[in-house]
What we know:
This protein has a single domain (4-63), classed as F0F1 ATP synthase delta/epsilon subunit, N-terminal (ATP Synthase, domain 1, Sandwich), CATH 2.60.15. The protein is globular, with a radius of gyration of 11 Å. β1 (4-9) and β2 form a beta hairpin. The protein has no helices and nine strands. It is mostly beta strands. The strands form two sheets. A five-stranded mixed beta sheet has the order 2-1-9-8-5, with no helix packed on it.
Amino acid sequence: MAEFDLKIISPEKELFDGKCESLVFDTPDGSYGIMAGHTPLTASVSEGEIKITFEGSRQSFIVKKGILHFENNSALIITG
């Protein structure tokens, strides 16, 4: 499966920095999913769970509100 770069940063620490296959997160408008090759996107991230798939396994993070930017197969999430 194709991968993209993902970095998730909270005020306390870096939660994730690596390649992933998929990303699912909540926004005020509903749930969004991203895979490699997704069109550029900037979105508000709602407080809740971010789910990622990488190296054939799944992991989730509980975050506060934040922002996501995806472009050129690279995603950055900064949470508050």
